[in-house]
Design brief:
single chain; 392 residues; mainly alpha; 14 helices; 70% helix; flat
Length: 392
């Protein structure tokens, strides 16, 4: 705990630092205005819109390649002038910049729209339309690149931010920014960290699913579906789950064992990451909330893997072009095997796999009575696979 004399000295020194920075705050308030003016001056000097439509489109597409580099130069200015503290204002300035560029694209769109009645007589209009679509695509790609590079630059800068002064002379955002500016900066930091967290969790979950997806990749081409011997006599045969599905089952059954350390050594960070990854939807696909409890993360991960398995399995099955009665029996045996394992693991729903299983098992004469209420895509796909007549 600081002694009274030390605290007074600290506050006095900090007050001197704040007084030095104080005149700059008024200028920093105008940062967005200054940056907009500079960016728009580049756009105006490019003189994009011309009387000749082809030339206008050429200039539009050419300028698209400059958008990202202009944004990076602006971000460098932001870092040099304010340590990156005015990134929120930079974002608004860049939004205005892009808006003004797209207004030039919109002008071209309106011009092309007026020519639609002459497209049959003038194939140049058709070519112009293709170039217009390409220009729009290049704009989207340029903005994507801009967002990626800016996010990287800001994330690197934000890692060095000091929100609370370690010494009276520590540079902190509040020296240049008013409270509203500091709040905006913090919100941007949080938003980007959430986006990075979302991306990280998605990659991790995708990797966890690889043993399942790799087995399912070959499912449509398995020899079992290429046999054309299917007759009703095959229904009396004994069917066992095929190797691909037992491999998936073995992997799924090892999940609790691999997730056991989460119960022994609770990781609040893991729970927090899963919460952040579901900010747009506070519950997972199973409707389960990721809480702070020890079992919550493991429970959520098992449900996530289980339900993704059901979705991937369904998609793989729908790639089988045609199946006979015996093939259906084999396939439903495989599906039942997986669904039973998922049920044992506590997965709350096997949708859409269980719905697909129901349609596969339905007797032909009962198909159109059982089908209503299910996903139309599933109904149509299974009908085609089983060669069931269209409902009259």
């Amino acid at each position: 705990m600081a002694k009274p004399g030390q605290e007074v000295l600290y506050q006095s020194q900090r007050a001197v630092v704040q007084a030095i920075y104080s005149p700059l705050q008024e200028q920093v308030l105008k940062y967005q205005e200054y940056e907009e003016a500079l960016l728009l001056s580049h756009l105006i000097s490019a003189d994009i819109v011309k009387n000749d439509m082809a030339e206008t489109l050429r200039r539009l597409r050419e300028y698209c390649s400059k958008l990202s580099s202009q944004a990076e130069v602006a971000a460098d200015r932001c870092l040099q002038l304010t340590n990156g503290w005015t990134f929120p204002s930079l974002v608004f300035a860049l939004a205005t910049y892009i808006e003004q560029f797209t207004s030039r694209l919109a002008q071209t769109v309106r011009h092309v729209e007026k020519q639609k009645t002459s497209i049959e007589d003038d194939w140049n209009v058709f070519t112009t339309c293709l170039n217009l679509i390409q220009a729009a695509g290049e704009l989207v790609m340029a903005v994507d690149n801009m967002e990626h590079s800016l996010a990287t630059m800001f994330t690197n800068a934000a890692a060095k931010f000091m929100w609370e002064p370690a010494t009276p002379f520590t540079a902190t955002p509040d020296l240049l920014l008013l409270k509203q500016g500091v709040d905006s900066l913090k919100q941007l930091v949080v938003m980007l960290s959430q986006a990075q967290c979302q991306s990280t969790v998605e990659v991790a979950l995708h990797t966890i699913m690889n043993p399942v997806s790799s087995q399912l990749a070959s499912l449509p081409d398995l020899p079992a579906w290429n046999s054309r011997q299917g007759t009703t006599s095959h229904l009396s045969l004994s069917f066992s789950p095929q190797e691909y599905v037992t491999q998936i089952g073995q992997y799924l059954m090892t999940l609790p064992q691999h997730l056991e350390p989460l119960l022994v050594n609770h990781s609040p960070a893991l729970n927090r990451a899963l919460q952040e990854a579901n900010t747009t939807c506070s519950t997972g696909p199973s409707g389960r909330v990721v809480s702070e409890s020890e079992v919550s993360a493991a429970d959520f991960l098992i449900n996530s893997v289980g339900q993704n398995t059901c979705k991937l399995y369904t998609d793989a099955i729908l790639k089988i072009p045609e199946i006979t009665t015996s093939m259906i029996t084999q396939l439903t045996t495989d599906i039942d095997y997986i669904c039973n394992i998922l049920e044992d693991l506590g997965v709350t729903s096997c949708d859409p796999l269980d719905k697909l299983n129901l349609l596969l098992k339905a007797p032909v004469e009962q198909y159109w009575k059982i089908a209503p209420g299910n996903n139309p895509r599933l109904i149509a796909a299974v009908r085609q696979m089983r060669n069931i007549p269209v409902q009259s």
